[in-house]
Design goal:
Elements lengths: L1 H30 L2 E2 L4 H7 L5 H9 L1 H8 L5 E5 L2 H17 L12 H9 L2 E2 L5 H4 L6 E4 L6 E8 L11 E7 L10 E12 L2 E6 L9 H6 L3
Length: about 220
């Protein structure tokens, strides 16, 4: 019996130590914020093949580009991927073709309206999920152009049957200058809390139509 005890005891101790190490590793991993060693603009440049369209637009908007390059600034960017621009351009040019108009591309559209649309994705403060979590109804925030009001709401998706046990997500809304939510246009994030030297990036779902449909409506008849 003593021999059996001597064999089992080390095994139990080893299992206990392994479980503690595993739990600690999971906790550290799940709460660690991703940090990029560069500015928001540097991050976009580093993601090859993901933000080419956004970078093209920023090249046409040097004032906004300078803000995202400034290491002493503090912004929140809801990053729009190439696919979101593709969806907007496809919808725009399909509509234009029906009326006999030629195709338009990001290089062609007017700078004033383009500037206004892109700036709505840039918020003049840092907002990460920890800051937004306590606000059940979300937060009204201000974009970097014309003090335009946007809205951010935090939620946690369900996972494996557990409410609030899944992926963190933000709902980013264009309020359309209305206090009534039925007039808002919304998009979900696919990735949150990418921290950089001058702010935080939340990446929008690839199914988002850049401009919250305003891009298509604005240029479909011009």
């Amino acid at each position: 019996m003593k021999t059996l005890y001597k064999i089992i005891l080390p095994i139990l101790l080893l299992v206990n130590i392994s479980c503690e190490k595993g739990d600690s590793h999971y906790y550290n991993y799940s709460t660690e914020t991703q940090v990029f060693n560069g500015t928001i603009y540097d991050y976009l440049k580093s993601q090859k093949g993901v933000y080419d369209s956004l970078l093209l637009v920023l090249d046409r908007l040097p004032d906004l580009r300078a803000k995202l390059q400034n290491p002493d600034s503090a912004y929140t960017l809801f990053a729009v991927t190439n696919r979101s621009f593709d969806l907007a351009l496809e919808a725009l040019n399909t509509t234009r073709s029906l009326t006999g108009r030629s195709n338009l591309y990001l290089e062609d559209v007017g700078l004033i309206d383009l500037d206004s649309m892109v700036n709505r994705y840039v918020i003049t403060e840092e907002f990460d999920t920890q800051q937004l979590k306590p606000f059940i109804d979300g937060q009204v925030v201000t974009s970097t152009k014309n003090n335009y009001k946007m809205h951010i709401q935090y939620r946690v998706l369900e996972a494996s049957g557990f409410v609030g046990g899944g992926q963190q997500q933000l709902i980013f809304s264009d309020t359309n200058n209305s206090i009534f939510q039925r007039y808002w246009q919304r998009v979900n994030t696919s990735v949150v809390d990418q921290r950089t030297k001058n702010g935080i990036i939340h990446i929008l779902s690839a199914g988002h139509d850049f401009g919250f449909s305003k891009f298509t409506s604005k240029y479909s008849t011009q």
